[in-house]
Specification:
CATH superfamily of the largest domain: NAD(P)-binding Rossmann-like Domain
Oligomer: single chain
EC number: 1.17.1.8
Organism: Gemmobacter caeni
Catalytic activity: (S)-2,3,4,5-tetrahydrodipicolinate + NAD(+) + H2O = (2S,4S)-4-hydroxy-2,3,4,5-tetrahydrodipicolinate + NADH + H(+); (S)-2,3,4,5-tetrahydrodipicolinate + NADP(+) + H2O = (2S,4S)-4-hydroxy-2,3,4,5-tetrahydrodipicolinate + NADPH + H(+)
CATH architecture of the largest domain: 3-Layer(aba) Sandwich
Bound molecules: NADPH dihydro-nicotinamide-adenine-dinucleotide phosphate, the ligand O=C(O)C1=N[C@H](C(=O)O)C[C@H](O)C1
Number of domains: 2
Largest sheet: 7 strands, parallel
CATH topology of the largest domain: Rossmann fold
Radius of gyration: 20 Å
Structural class: alpha/beta
CATH class of the largest domain: Alpha Beta
Strand content: 15-25%
Order of helices and strands: EHEHEHEHEHEHEHHEEEEHEH
Enzyme class: oxidoreductase
Subcellular location: Cytoplasm
Number of helices: 10
């Protein structure tokens, strides 16, 4: 086996997939083992370096995850919920570290991912950046310090191609706020206000989503009190922050036992 751990990038042609390919190729701690696209994609069989407009790198894009996983130690997956569930089962069979950045996962997807984590390392986070994971910690602390008279709202903005709302990050922040306050997010969540909504439900944790242009990702946690407001904010301007975090997670997971982990574990927060 090569000295450097081989990494598979799933969804290689996507916004994150392209960024991840570049990040792994530039790394001196990992090597690119394979690049996966869905069957029928016109990149299948072509060199991934050339697909991205550069020099060949000796890795052809494949639509066969089993073949790809056989030559690697980790798979980094920013795709769709359906694809991620499929990759989780195959990565667990191959005992690969599976780093999941995909958002919009429903309870039935999460149950399958948890089942796979009984056999292999899975690191999953709605946001892989250091800044957002620090913001999650701060949100939990601020929510714990304030009483329930302070209204909590999570406001997020993303590009016009994003398909899920609230964002995975907004949900991480909402969960942290709920945890800090000692309540259950599912009970207190309030999203998609429209029309005659009535007054704000006391103690609710609200979510608002903006979609437009090429916004990479912006998140505010607003604590609105009487006569004052606190805003915790993260602004992503470059997808490289997510790719760096994902590669860090893939390397971190190499010596861990099977289980479900997140970026808090990776970053030691
Ligand atoms: N956790 C984090 O830090 C971050 C998470 N994300 C999340 O990552 C996900 C992807 O985002 P983004 O890159 O913007 O989305 P894109 O739509 O640009 O990329 C998704 C890629 O996955 C591919 N794909 C879908 N199904 C399969 C399959 N079965 N096999 C192989 N490839 C497949 C798509 O191919 P095709 O185009 O042919 O459908 C596409 O290339 C989203 O859920 C997003 O929210 C994004 C940024 C950061
Ligand atoms: O789809 C995106 O682009 C992003 N998705 C993640 C999310 O849902 O929070 C992370 C980041 O904000 C970009």
């Amino acid at each position: 086996m090569d000295a450097l751990p081989g990494i598979v990038i799933a969804g290689a042609s996507g916004r994150m997939g392209r960024m991840l390919i570049g990040t792994v190729l530039a790394s001196d701690k990992a090597r690119l083992a394979a690049a996966i696209q869905r069957p029928g994609h016109d990149w299948i069989g072509r060199d991934i370096g050339e697909c991205l407009g550069g020099a060949p790198v000796g890795v052809k894009v494949t639509d066969d995850p089993l073949e790809a996983f056989a030559k690697a130690r980790a798979v980094i997956d920013f795709t769709t919920p359906a694809a991620t569930v499929e990759f989780a089962a195959l990565a667990a069979q191959a005992r690969l570290v599976h780093v999941i950045g995909t958002t919009g996962l429903e309870p039935e997807h999460l149950a399958k991912i948890d089942a796979a984590a009984r056999h292999a390392v899975i690191v999953r986070a709605g946001n892989m950046s250091l800044g957002v994971n620090l913001l999650v910690t701060l949100t939990r602390k601020v929510a714990a310090a304030l009483d329930a008279d302070w209204d909590i709202e999570v406001i997020e903005a993303h590009h016009n191609k994003k398909v899920d709302a609230p964002s995975g990050t907004a949900l991480m922040l909402g969960h942290a706020a709920a945890e800090g306050r000692g309540v259950d997010l599912d009970t207190m969540r309030d999203s998609g206000r429209d029309g005659i909504t009535g007054a704000r439900r006391p103690g609710a944790i609200g979510f608002s989503a903006i979609r437009g242009g090429d916004i990479v990702g912006e998140h505010d946690v607003l604590f609105a009190g009487t006569g004052e407001r606190i805003v915790l904010r993260h602004i992503a301007t470059d997808r490289a922050i997510f790719a760096r975090g994902a590669l860090k997670a893939a390397l971190w997971g190499q010596d861990k036992g099977p289980g479900a982990y997140d970026m808090m574990d990776v970053l030691g927060l």
